[in-house]
């Protein structure tokens, strides 16, 4: 029973990993930019959720009305900047890491390095759960999973079915030829940066629902989220979702049957093994790249 | 004679410090098939890439339908009715055949009628209809060339640029490709073919240009170039 509970809870928490990883993966696959600043956007998204909900006594989910547009603009601006700098894949790692450090510093100046958490009266979700027989699911994990599923499904449909989505996949495969057919790489990259920023707002909100915030949290996301991106296959949104669930389940089960301290060890050993067998990612199929 | 559909004048193109084209001038009139031949490294691909906006011109003027497109950003050139079948095909290998084709219709005025255009492309290349759902990268070389040509047709071009369409194809596939080029031209699309397979290109073209070391060495009716000693020497090595 314990293992079943751990598996299901892990799968739901995996939704949050997927939500954090999806934007990183698509930016990497389509624009060849490894945007570490994405973690900074998630962090700001989380703090904005905390701030807006606390100051205005707003339901945290409703704060998305503010945070999504704000992070869309921030994400688009960052992408615009990257485009002007003509970053290579490797340089993007350095520049965006710099941006992340600045973001963390600014966050810590504004909100201090102390833990911040939404109080129970503005955040009803943190204490609620749904029981299914003897299984119990915290509402926050259901929200995480639901939003991740929506984002992934939406991104998948846009990439497959729309002119803009096809153009993004074309840019990923041959930018010059895509341009010869009228694809404006600059405009699309700014648009994509905005959409990815919006997903950072969602991820930040979900994180703030069930966690206390401190600026250093952003560093803690690195390992797990990168694992999800690589396992899912770079640029593969559906793969990212599957990888998020897998990583969530693996961490959950190892924590339950062994010890939470062993989870990273098992997780990253499994990832190294998986990549030896399938270097392109476990779930890479016919994605953008 | 009316104004040419494509007019290239005094064109210089550089890759960094290396200059690839000097003072190139070519013209293509409405409905013509023109070929550009020359030895390896003569600048043939550079010329069509410059016209398609893939590589910028350093000096000179390129106009399409009387509009100067020289300084346009690359993605705007196709809006004036230019589409390219690049050297080595350069299809999008991890997209389906259908997605490759539909991407060809990305430019604004080609989007709305793209279903009708697609039917026309399938008429020319029925094989693409059978392969629509397959990843383009999984196709044979000849089929990939069909995808590349079909993708260009989806843009509803007035001017179709083909860069080495016979490259790497079995002779029977080359026949198919050239047969298709002929039919496309019959539908009113002007065609520029860049080829190393000189005989094949001269057979289909009305007029021809011979490039050598980045300059136009000779131009005239294709039949005239076919018989010229200059062409035989520089391209055929005879």
UniProtKB/TrEMBL annotation, chain A:
Primary location class = membrane
Q: What is the lineage of its organism?
A: Bacteria, Bacillati, Actinomycetota, Actinomycetes, Streptosporangiales
Question: What organism is this sequence from?
Answer: Planotetraspora thailandica
GO BP terms in the entry = amino acid transport
In terms of CDD domains, this protein maps to:
TM_PBP1_LivH_like
Q: What is this protein called?
A: Branched-chain amino acid ABC transporter permease
Family the UniProt entry places it in: Belongs to the binding-protein-dependent transport system permease family. LivHM subfamily.
Give GO terms: molecular function aspect only: transmembrane transporter activity
Query: What's the protein's topology in the membrane?
Result: Multi-pass membrane protein
Q: Is the keyword rRNA processing in the record? A: no
Name one matching Pfam family. BPD_transp_2
Keywords in alphabetical order: Amino-acid transport, Cell membrane, Membrane, Transmembrane, Transmembrane helix, Transport
Q: Where in the cell is it found?
A: Cell membrane
Q: Where are the transmembrane segments?
A: 6-26, 33-50, 62-81, 93-111, 131-159, 188-209, 221-250, 257-277
Gene Ontology cellular component list: plasma membrane
UniProtKB/TrEMBL annotation, chain B:
Record key words, sorted: Amino-acid transport, ATP-binding, Nucleotide-binding, Transport
SUPFAM superfamilies referenced in this protein's UniProt entry, alphabetically: P-loop containing nucleoside triphosphate hydrolases
User: Which GO MF terms are attached to this record?
Assistant: ATP binding; ATP hydrolysis activity; branched-chain amino acid transmembrane transporter activity
Identify the InterPro entries for this entry. Answer: AAA+_ATPase, ABC_transporter-like_ATP-bd, ABC_transporter-like_CS, BCAA_Transport_ATP-bd_LivF, P-loop_NTPase
Give residue ranges for domain ABC transporter: 6-238
> What's a Pfam family in this record?
ABC_tran
GO BP terms, alphabetized? L-amino acid transport
The superkingdom of the source organism is Bacteria
Record family assignment? Belongs to the ABC transporter superfamily.
> Would you tell me the protein name for this molecule?
ABC transporter ATP-binding protein
């Amino acid at each position: 029973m314990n293992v079943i509970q751990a598996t299901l809870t892990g799968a739901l928490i995996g939704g949050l990993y997927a939500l954090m990883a999806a934007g990183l993966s698509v930016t990497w696959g389509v624009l060849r930019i490894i945007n570490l600043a994405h973690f900074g956007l998630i962090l700001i998204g989380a703090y904005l959720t905390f701030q807006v909900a606390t100051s205005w006594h707003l339901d945290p989910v409703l704060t998305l009305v503010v945070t999504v547009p704000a992070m869309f603009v921030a994400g688009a601006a960052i992408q615009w900047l990257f485009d002007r700098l003509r970053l290579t894949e490797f340089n993007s790692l350095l520049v965006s890491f710099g941006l992340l450090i600045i973001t963390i510093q600014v966050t810590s100046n504004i909100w201090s390095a102390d833990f911040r958490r939404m109080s129970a009266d503005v955040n009803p979700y943190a204490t609620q759960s749904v029981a299914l027989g003897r299984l119990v699911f915290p509402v926050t994990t259901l929200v995480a999973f639901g939003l991740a599923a929506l984002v992934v499904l939406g991104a998948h449909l846009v990439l497959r079915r729309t002119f803009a989505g096809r153009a993004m996949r074309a840019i990923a495969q041959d930018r010059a030829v895509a341009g010869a057919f009228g694809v404006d790489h600059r405009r699309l990259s700014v648009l994509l940066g905005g959409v990815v920023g919006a997903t950072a707002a969602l991820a930040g909100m979900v994180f703030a629902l069930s966690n206390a915030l401190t600026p250093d949290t952003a560093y803690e996301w690195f390992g797990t989220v990168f694992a999800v991106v690589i396992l899912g296959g770079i640029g593969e949104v559906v793969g990212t979702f599957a990888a998020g669930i897998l990583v969530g389940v693996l961490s959950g089960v190892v924590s339950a049957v062994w010890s939470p301290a062993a989870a990273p060890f098992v997780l990253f050993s499994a990832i190294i093994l998986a990549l030896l067998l399938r270097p392109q990612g476990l779930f890479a199929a016919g994605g953008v790249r | 004679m009316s104004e040419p559909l494509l007019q290239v004048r005094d064109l210089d193109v550089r890759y960094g410090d290396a200059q690839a084209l000097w003072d190139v001038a070519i013209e293509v009139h409405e409905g013509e098939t023109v070929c550009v031949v020359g030895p390896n490294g003569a600048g043939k691909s550079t010329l069509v890439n410059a016209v398609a906006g893939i590589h910028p011109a350093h000096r000179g003027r390129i106009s399409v339908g009387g509009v100067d497109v020289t300084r346009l950003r690359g993605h705007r050139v196709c809006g004036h009715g230019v589409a390219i079948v690049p050297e080595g095909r350069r299809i999008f290998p991890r997209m389906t055949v259908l997605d490759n084709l539909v991407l060809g219709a990305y430019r604004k005025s080609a989007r709305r009628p793209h279903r009708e255009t697609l039917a026309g492309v399938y008429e020319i290349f029925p094989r693409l209809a059978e392969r629509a759902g397959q990843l383009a990268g999984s196709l044979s070389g000849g089929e990939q060339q069909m995808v590349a040509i079909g993708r260009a047709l989806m843009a509803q071009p007035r001017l179709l640029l083909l860069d080495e369409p016979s490259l790497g194809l079995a002779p029977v596939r080359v026949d198919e490709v050239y047969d298709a080029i002929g039919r496309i031209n019959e539908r009113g699309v002007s065609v520029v073919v860049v080829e190393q397979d000189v005989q094949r290109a001269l057979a289909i073209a009305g007029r021809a240009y011979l490039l050598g070391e980045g300059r136009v060495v000779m131009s005239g009716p294709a039949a005239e170039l076919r018989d010229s000693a200059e062409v035989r020497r520089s391209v055929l090595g005879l």
